[in-house]
Write a structure and sequence with these properties.
The structure is a single chain. The protein is mainly α. Among the domains are: about 90 residues, no CATH class; about 110 residues, AGR_C_984p-like; about 120 residues, no CATH class; about 120 residues, Orthogonal Bundle (AGR_C_984p-like). The chain is built from 43 helices and no strands. α15 packs across α16, α37 crosses α39 and α37 runs antiparallel to α41. The C terminus is likely disordered.
C-alpha cells in the first residue's frame, strides 16, 4: 500500500504539472472560464454575493468554502477598508478574510483630473523649465551668433524661424502678430528715403511700435532687393550685439540669471560716469537695477529716489529717517550706498559710489532680482495644487488661466499655437489608439500634455492611467513589508516601509513597461514581495513574460514553473505592447485578483482531490504551500489544518487545544522554529516526519505498525526513525 509521503511526493515533486492536470479537469476548466468571463460584469458587493457560482468559486479559492452560507458576514469583509487597521477584515484573527477582501476592490476607482504623481510631475517640469530658462536664452544667442553670418538674403533670415524669433523678441516685437511680407518690407526699406515702406508706416499715437520697426531695420544691412552688398554681412558686430543682448533682456517675460549678468555689467560700466542724481533718474535701466539691489519696487518714483539719496542721514527729521514705513531700513541702506550732496551733486574729489558701495549694490541686485518672479511661481504652483482638485471636466481645465499657464510652460507650448478646441480634442484622445487625434498629430509636447491629465472621450474626469492601480500598490507594498520584516527588527521593518514608500511614489510615475523594467529597484521590490530571489530572473526574461499572451498556453508566462509570475504580471496594467491600459470602470477585481483567485482555486481543488484519497496528503500539501508565509505560532493556532499538521508531526496531544493560547504557543515554539520554515529543505524534512507519523497514527499500512502491533510504549521519534529507514530517508 502506498505511503502518505509517496502519494504526497508524486504530486509535490512537479507541482506545476500537478496543477495543470487539475486545471484540465472538465468541471474545473468550466468553472474557471465562467469566473473569468463574468467577474468583470459584476459591479457591486450584492451582485457578487447573489451570483452563487462566482461567489462560491472565490470562497473555495480562499479556503473559506465552509463560510459560503454567511453572506452578511462576508459582505462586511468585502466592504472593509484595508488601509484602516481598525476595519472589520483587518481586526479578524484569521488572515484569510483580509486576503479575501484584498482580492477584490469594490470601491470605485477615483476619477481625478490628476493624481499626486501627475501633479508633482507637471510642477517638476514647470520648475525645470524656469530653472533652465537662462541656459535656453544663452543657447539661443550662441546659435544666433553662429548662424547669422551665413545668411545672404532677407528670405533666408525670415524662413529660419529660430533666427527670426530671436531678432524680433530682442526688439520686443511679438513674432505671432507680424507677417512675412511686412517684415520683409521693413527690413528692405531705405531708412533715408522718405517714401520707403518703413517711413510711410502709420501707427497713429503708437510711436513705440514704429520705433521698434525702425530699430529692426537699423539692425540689419539688407538692400532694397533683399540681398547684401558684396563683402557685407547681415550685421556688423555692433548690430549683432544689439540683438544678442536684447534677446537676453527681452526674450523672456521673467528675470533670468543671464539677464541679471548683463544688467550687472551695464551697471558697473555706467555708475562711474554718474555725477548727479539726475544722471540716474534719467536712466530707467540703471535706476531699476539700483532699486532692485536694495529690495525696493522698480515702480518707486524718481522723486522718492532723489529724496532718499540726498537726505541727511544724521538728521533725525530727514526724509530717509522718517519715511518708507516698513521699507525704511531699505531706504537707509540705499542712502548709505551713495555719496550725493543735498543738491544732488557729488562733492569735489568724491564719486557717486565707492568700490565697496558698488559691490554692496551688485550683491543686493543678485539677491533680489528674481524675488518677484519666485513669489509669483510659488503662488502659481500653490493655486494649481488647489485648483486641480476642483477640476471635473476638460472645460474646467481649459477655462483656468492659471492652470493652463503652468501647463503651457511645463510642456513648452505657446498659448497662441493651438485653439481651445484643439486642446480639448488632445486631452480627450485615447492615448493607446495609434489613430487617435493626439497620436496622429505627432507632437510629443501635446502627447505629454494629454498624459498629464485624466479625461474620458466625453470630457469628464476618469480614473488615472497607472502601471498599477492603487489597490495593487497597497497589496504589493504590504507583501513586501511582511516578507522583509517577518522576523526582523524594528529598524528592518522601518527600512522595508521606507522602501515601500519609494515604490509607491515611483511606480505611479511609470509610463510604460520599459520604464518599470529599467528601474531594477522597483523590479526587485515586486519580486521580493512574492518571495522570488531577484538574482534568479533577468530583465529580459521578465519582459518576455509581460509581453506574452496570457491566453496562449505555450506563451512565456504560461510555461514558467513558478506560477507567482502570472500573478505579478496580472497585477500591472501593461498591454501586449508594454503600454499602460486603463482598468475598465466598474470592475470589482483587478487582473491580479482574478489570476490569484484562479490560482488559489487550483490549489484548493488539488488538495481536496488528494484529501479524498488520503487526508494526510492534503494536510502535507497545505502545509507545504503555507509554510513560508507563517510568521509565528499564532498563525498555526489560528488555522485548524495547520494546527492538526503540527500536532501530528510533533506528537502534541489534541487535548492541548483546550489549553490557554499562550500555553499552546509555548508548546509549539518548543518543537518548531518558525524561521526554519523559510528554508525549503527544512520544510521537506518536516513534511517527511509528518507523513511517517501520520501513517503510524492512522494505520495506513506502515510496516512499523505491523511489526509492533501499535505504537504503545514506543516513542514518536523512534517510529519516525523506523519509517525513515523504510523510506530511505536516513
Amino acid at each position: 500500500m502506498a505511503t502518505t509521503f509517496l502519494d504526497y511526493n508524486l504530486i509535490a515533486r512537479d507541482m506545476n504539472a500537478s496543477l495543470n492536470r487539475v486545471a484540465k479537469q472538465t468541471l474545473v476548466a468550466r468553472d474557471a472560464e465562467y469566473y473569468k468571463a463574468n467577474i468583470g460584469k459584476v459591479s457591486t458587493v450584492d451582485e457578487f454575493l447573489d451570483d452563487y457560482r462566482l461567489y462560491s468559486y472565490a470562497m473555495k479559492a480562499h479556503g473559506l468554502e465552509d463560510m459560503t452560507y454567511a453572506k452578511a458576514f462576508m459582505k462586511k469583509v468585502l466592504e472593509s477598508d484595508l488601509t484602516d487597521d481598525a476595519s472589520f477584515a483587518n481586526k479578524l484573527s484569521d488572515d484569510r478574510y483580509r486576503k479575501f477582501a484584498a482580492a477584490f476592490d469594490f470601491s470605485k476607482a477615483t476619477a481625478v483630473a490628476q493624481t499626486d504623481a501627475q501633479t508633482d510631475s507637471i510642477i517638476g517640469l514647470y520648475t525645470n523649465k524656469i530653472a533652465t530658462l537662462s541656459e535656453t536664452l544663452t543657447d539661443d544667442t550662441r546659435y544666433y551668433g553662429a548662424v547669422i553670418d551665413s545668411v545672404t538674403t532677407v528670405d533666408e533670415l525670415l524662413t529660419n524661424s529660430r533666427l527670426k524669433d530671436i531678432a524680433l523678441k530682442a526688439l520686443q516685437i511679438d513674432p505671432t502678430y507680424v507677417s512675412f511680407d511686412h517684415l520683409k518690407k521693413v527690413l528692405t526699406s531705405d531708412a533715408n528715403d522718405p517714401g520707403s515702406y518703413l517711413n510711410t508706416l502709420d501707427y497713429g499715437d503708437d510711436t513705440q511700435t514704429l520705433d521698434k520697426f525702425r530699430a529692426l531695420n537699423a539692425a540689419f544691412n539688407f538692400q532694397t532687393d533683399g540681398t547684401l552688398a558684396s563683402g557685407t554681412l547681415p550685421q556688423n558686430d555692433t548690430q549683432k550685439k544689439v540683438i544678442e543682448e536684447g534677446y537676453i533682456l527681452n526674450g523672456s517675460t521673467r528675470a533670468t540669471r543671464a539677464a541679471a549678468l548683463l544688467n550687472d555689467e551695464y551697471y558697473r560700466n555706467t555708475i562711474g560716469s554718474v555725477t548727479t542724481v539726475d544722471d540716474i533718474k534719467s536712466n530707467p535701466r540703471l535706476l531699476s537695477i539700483i532699486l532692485t539691489g536694495f529690495g525696493l519696487p522698480t515702480s518707486t518714483l524718481t522723486s522718492t529716489f532723489e529724496n532718499i539719496v540726498t537726505s541727511d542721514p544724521n538728521d533725525p527729521a530727514s526724509y530717509v529717517n522718517t519715511q518708507g514705513g516698513e521699507l525704511n531700513q531699505a531706504y537707509k541702506a540705499l542712502r548709505a550706498a551713495f555719496n550725493f550732496e543735498a543738491d544732488g551733486t557729488i562733492a569735489a574729489g568724491n564719486v557717486a559710489q565707492t568700490a565697496q558701495q558698488i559691490e554692496t549694490t551688485s550683491g543686493g541686485y543678485f539677491s533680489f532680482y528674481d524675488d518677484k518672479d519666485d513669489a509669483a511661481d510659488e503662488d502659481l504652483i500653490s493655486r494649481f495644487k488647489l485648483e486641480v482638485g476642483t477640476i471635473k471636466t476638460v472645460d474646467d481645465l481649459l477655462a483656468s488661466q492659471r492652470m493652463m499657464s503652468l501647463a503651457f510652460t511645463a510642456f513648452d507650448i505657446k498659448p497662441e499655437e493651438y485653439t481651445a478646441r484643439t486642446l480639448k480634442k488632445v486631452l480627450t484622445s485615447d492615448l493607446n489608439d495609434p489613430a487617435s487625434y493626439v497620436n496622429k498629430l505627432g507632437d510629443e509636447r501635446l502627447l505629454a500634455f494629454a498624459k498629464a491629465f485624466n479625461f474620458k472621450a466625453d470630457g469628464e474626469t476618469t480614473a488615472p492611467r497607472l502601471a498599477q492601480d492603487q489597490s495593487e500598490i497597497l497589496n504589493v507594498s504590504k507583501k513586501y513589508v511582511l516578507e522583509k520584516s517577518r522576523f526582523g527588527t524594528d529598524a528592518e521593518k522601518k527600512k522595508a516601509e521606507d522602501e515601500a514608500a519609494y515604490y509607491s511614489s515611483k511606480i505611479s510615475g511609470v509610463e510604460k513597461l520599459d520604464d518599470f523594467l529599467k528601474d531594477r529597484r522597483l523590479v526587485d521590490f515586486v519580486l521580493t514581495a512574492y518571495d522570488i530571489d531577484p538574482k534568479t530572473v533577468t530583465t529580459a526574461d521578465l519582459k518576455k513574460m509581460f509581453l506574452s499572451d496570457p491566453n496562449d498556453p505555450r506563451s512565456a508566462i504560461n510555461t514558467t514553473t513558478n506560477r507567482d509570475y502570472r500573478v505579478i504580471v496580472a497585477s500591472f496594467n501593461f498591454d501586449g505592447d508594454g503600454k499602460i491600459t486603463r482598468r475598465p470602470e466598474g470592475q470589482i477585481q483587478t487582473q491580479r485578483g482574478v489570476a490569484e483567485t484562479q490560482q488559489f482555486y487550483l490549489n484548493q481543488t488539488l488538495e481536496q482531490d488528494a484529501g479524498a484519497e488520503n487526508e494526510g496528503v492534503r494536510l502535507a500539501l497545505y502545509f507545504q504551500r503555507k509554510a513560508d508565509s507563517l510568521s509565528s505560532a499564532y498563525d498555526i493556532l489560528a488555522d485548524p489544518a495547520l494546527l492538526s499538521f503540527v500536532q501530528t508531526t510533533f506528537s502534541i496531544p489534541k487535548e492541548m487545544s483546550s489549553a490557554d493560547v499562550e500555553i499552546q504557543k509555548t508548546q509549539i515554539d518548543k518543537v518548531l522554529n518558525i524561521k526554519d520554515l523559510q528554508d525549503p529543505e527544512e520544510v521537506s524534512k518536516i513534511v517527511k516526519r509528518f507523513t511517517a507519523l501520520y501513517d503510524l497514527a492512522n494505520d495506513t499500512g506502515s510496516p512499523a505498525l505491523a511489526i509492533f502491533g501499535g505504537s504503545g510504549g514506543i516513542s514518536a521519534d523512534t517510529l519516525f526513525t523506523l519509517s525513515q529507514l523504510r523510506q530511505g530517508g536516513l
